[in-house]
């Protein structure tokens, strides 16, 4: 069985990432990219789906683990009856090959160690052919080849289609293991010096982390910095694209069907991500993300997608992995994401808002970008009044989601403001008319006038945490009674033991005709709780926002990582991990809190 989601640490090389459990097992790794097929998928089943464990043969105490400084280098230390031992796990930023390096360090006494490498390519489906040569192990199947090189004195053997080893770590010894991936047609993976690679990896991360300058309270610095390190780890360095999470298939409900693939780049993350990077001092990463966005959306506005691959790929077909048991029997496991073909009108607002924020931050809007924006808005004029699948990518019927309409308003509002400050040509008067028209439409049809609150969709009574964007976007002033009433209603009706659900979950949610078209429920969506913090700050309830922020920050793992959702009843994380949306929200809320607290 895999560990709890919060039991996993993240290591990565800015092109892919691995999850390492408290038991010393790497249970998830896709090579050579985030969205490649995995060679370790025990996370979605068990050891038979592929893993690499390196740990003491026996130990009596729970291990202690931490990242070395402000890096992504993990160290895990076990104490046994005969001594203590430390395993250092990391992935050096890539030169030619993708490498996972593990250094076993004897701390005191002597500790008997065991290793088990079980490679299973293509998400656990393919057992490679393993052979030995010059003290190396080479696994080959189809296009993939993995090389395992061990330190002197470590002997490996084949057993039950796995490579196993037993050795003793004595105090003062450092025993390296290097796993390298190459295309199978390459002759061999180049040799690496793990100790040198460790030094360079630590230097790289420390240099990057030293640029952190987010204006947050001193008590929030560690959490904000770790969130930005995590965001950097989810970045595909060659293109600047940022994946939503490192994993696929982790459930929003244990044993349920809400198991999605998040190893892609969502447009809706763009404004919030850009804001976090810019405000924290990471202009280079912000510009790389901005440039990725412009390349991805280039083309016919009618073909704009809500998500793309890390290099801007458009075809992300969804398939069901029937051969995988699923995390704690949560099935089906899906790879790819069918939501790529949905109509989600909010992304037009996100794109234009990103261009506006970029301009405010000193990133010039070039003429060809402006021309593309004008065309996007021409297309949106024809479609804004249509129903869509909305922010939450429902798999039920299309509806007139209020958040989608608000973001259409944002598209025209920001376009008008950009035109005013840049003096670039465009049908500005028409954009003003559309902005006003959408505003009137939302206020007339998106409000439950009896209660004076914004609803999830036109004609409905259900609530949606995404309507908090009525505050975040500037759609209404903060002293409008509908703003306060909506915030209070969300606090009350979407409360899940002190945290916030994405949307109302009536009894019908157990039926396939629910709004999202799915059976079952889910945990509290962590980003929504951060949005509530932002809304509370906006209406002057800073102390209440701080209290909620502290509770949210307390949900992070011992390593500062947060997934998509939280189950308050079971007291555990849910959903894909670590989640960029959650960590970006943490950073932005910490910044807003600091600004508000300075004003008090």
Task: Describe the protein's topology.
Blueprint: E1 9-12, E2 17-20, E3 25-30, E4 38-40, E5 51-56, E6 64-67, E7 74-79, E8 83-90, E9 98-118, H1 121-124, E10 129-133, E11 136-141, E12 144-150, E13 156-159, E14 162-170, E15 174-183, H2 194-209, H3 221-233, E16 235-236, E17 241-242, E18 248-251, E19 259-261, E20 265-266, H4 270-279, H5 283-297, E21 307-308, E22 319-320, E23 334-335, H6 346-360, H7 367-383, H8 402-422, H9 428-445, E24 447-448, E25 453-454, H10 469-472, H11 481-493, E26 495-496, E27 499-500, E28 524-525, H12 526-538, H13 542-553, E29 565-567, E30 572-574, H14 580-599
Antiparallel strand pairs: 1-2, 2-3, 3-4, 3-5, 5-9, 6-7, 7-8, 8-9, 9-14, 9-15, 10-11, 11-12, 12-15, 13-14, 16-17, 18-19, 20-21, 22-23, 24-25, 26-27, 28-29, 29-30
Helix pairs in contact: 3-14, 4-5, 4-6, 4-14, 6-8, 8-9, 12-13, 12-14, 13-14
């Amino acid at each position: 069985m895999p560990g709890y989601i919060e039991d996993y640490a993240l290591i990565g090389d800015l092109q892919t990432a691995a999850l390492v459990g408290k038991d010393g097992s790497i249970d998830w790794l896709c090579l050579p990219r985030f969205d490649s097929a995995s060679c370790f998928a025990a996370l979605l089943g068990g050891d038979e789906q592929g893993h690499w464990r390196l740990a003491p043969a026996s130990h009596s105490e729970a291990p202690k683990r931490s990242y070395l400084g402000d890096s992504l280098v993990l160290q895990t230390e076990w104490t046994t009856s005969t001594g203590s031992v430390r395993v250092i796990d990391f992935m050096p930023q890539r030169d030619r090959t993708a490498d996972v390096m593990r250094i076993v360090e004897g701390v005191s006494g002597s500790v008997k160690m065991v290793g088990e490498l079980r490679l299973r390519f293509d998400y656990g489906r393919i057992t490679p052919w393993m052979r030995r040569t010059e003290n190396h192990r080479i696994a080959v199947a189809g296009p993939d080849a993995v090389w395992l090189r061990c330190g002197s004195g470590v002997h490996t053997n084949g057993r039950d289609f796995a490579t196993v080893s037993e050795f003793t770590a004595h105090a003062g010894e450092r025993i390296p293991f290097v796993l390298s991936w190459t295309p199978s047609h390459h002759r061999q993976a180049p040799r690496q010096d793990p100790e040198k690679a460790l030094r360079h990896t630590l230097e790289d991360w420390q240099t990057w982390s030293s640029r952190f300058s987010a204006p947050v309270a001193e008590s929030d610095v560690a959490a904000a910095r770790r969130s930005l390190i995590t965001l950097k780890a989810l970045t595909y360095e060659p293109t600047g694209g940022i994946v939503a999470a490192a994993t696929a298939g982790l459930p929003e409900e244990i044993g349920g069907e809400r198991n999605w693939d998040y190893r892609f780049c969502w447009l809706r993350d763009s404004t919030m991500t850009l804001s976090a990077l810019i405000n924290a001092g990471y202009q280079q990463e912000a510009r790389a993300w901005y440039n990725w966005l412009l390349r991805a959306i280039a083309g016919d506005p009618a073909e704009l997608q809500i998500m793309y691959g890390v290099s801007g790929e458009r075809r992300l077909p969804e398939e069901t992995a029937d051969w995988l048991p699923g995390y704690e029997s949560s099935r089906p496991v899906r790879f790819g994401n069918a939501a790529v073909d949905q109509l989600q009108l909010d992304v037009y607002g996100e794109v234009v808002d990103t261009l506006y924020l970029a301009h405010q931050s000193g990133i010039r809007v070039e003429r060809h970008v402006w021309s593309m924006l004008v065309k996007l808005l021409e297309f949106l004029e024809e479609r804004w009044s249509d129903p869509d699948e909305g922010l939450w990518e429902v798999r039920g019927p299309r509806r007139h989601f209020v958040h989608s309409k608000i973001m259409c308003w944002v598209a025209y509002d920001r376009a008008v403001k950009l035109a005013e400050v840049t003096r670039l040509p465009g049908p500005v008067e028409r954009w003003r008319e559309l902005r006003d028209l959408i505003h009137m439409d939302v206020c007339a049809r998106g409000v439950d006038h009896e209660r004076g609150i914004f609803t999830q969709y036109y004609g409905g009574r259900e609530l949606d945490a995404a309507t908090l964007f009525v505050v975040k976007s500037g759609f209404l002033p903060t002293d409008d009674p509908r703003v306060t009433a909506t915030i209070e209603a969300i606090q009350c009706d979407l409360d899940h033991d002190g945290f916030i659900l994405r949307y109302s979950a009536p009894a019908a949610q157990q039926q396939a005709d629910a709004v999202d078209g799915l059976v079952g429920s889910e945990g509290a969506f962590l980003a929504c709780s951060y949005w509530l913090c932002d809304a509370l700050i906006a209406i002057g309830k800073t102390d209440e926002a701080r209290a909620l922020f502290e509770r949210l920050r307390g949900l992070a793992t011992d390593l500062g990582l947060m997934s998509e959702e939280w189950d308050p009843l079971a007291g555990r994380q849910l959903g894909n991990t670590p989640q960029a949306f959650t960590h970006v929200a943490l950073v932005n809320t910490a910044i807003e809190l600091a600004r508000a607290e300075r004003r008090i």
